[in-house]
Amino acid sequence: MILVCGEALYDMFSDNTSADPIGFEAHIGGSPYNVAIGLARLGQKPAFFGGISTDQLGEKLLARLAEEGVETTNVHRSPALTTLSLVQKTAAGQPVYTFYGENAADRMVTEADLPLPDQNFAMVHIGSYTALVEPVASALKNLIERERPNSLIAFDPNIRPTVVPDMNAWKANTHNLAAVADVIKVSDEDLALIEPLKRIDDIAQGWIEQGSGLVVVTRGANGAEVYTVNGRYSFEGQKVAVADTVGAGDTFQAALLMGLTELGICGRDELARLDDSHVTRLVSFAIEASALTCTRRGADLPRKSELRPF
How many CB atoms lie within 10 A of CB 107? Predict the structure, then answer.
């Protein structure tokens, strides 16, 4: 089982440019939450750990997880409110997020709320702002320390400057977590935010040299660069009619983790033996899945039946 840890929230979309009235379309989301649902839709049996409110919005978040087939026994319920994220698009169609979540349920998670030990998770995935903001970030780092001897650790920094504007904090936190992560998925945009003066190759190769087994740098419509102990690979993107790119990175991560599971990669030794054919299968499938998400509004991740067989 894969344990996915982090935030659960609502993305609020508005295309109305007039001052009054302002209408919003709400979509359930949050990067790790999306990854968990994406894994379930791809035929896996994920579990979700994060703070979910007991308010009306939180009840819907929890119900959706259960409906999608995500294990919810590790969810921490909290009387704190649910985070809201206002999503606006740039002229280039890229989403820009503004978060309303100070002291919200997904942030107010402590070590005392962690899942019980000895659940035999094959992988633990963490990422996005809950890996940085307190107290949840410290709780998740304690979880990694506890689970790492027996589980692969997957990490997606998913930089959100509107949550924490300090790029030095994001930079330090990203490198600290990369040092204990086995599988890293990061966008070129995120790397440009935290390491504007460094080459992507140097950053990714540095993470491989310090012990990561697989680093994937996504480049949006331009595909992905992949790094392993056995080499570096480039993959082109898939051209589609883009509705928006919300959830594309989460789809990529879910597909990547699904692929590793299907290949039987459950330990660091197996990860180190990834060959050219494995990498091609993994990344081509993830690119196809994320491209399909881009054709739909909001984080509507694909189901296994919508994609070619892995």
Answer: 22
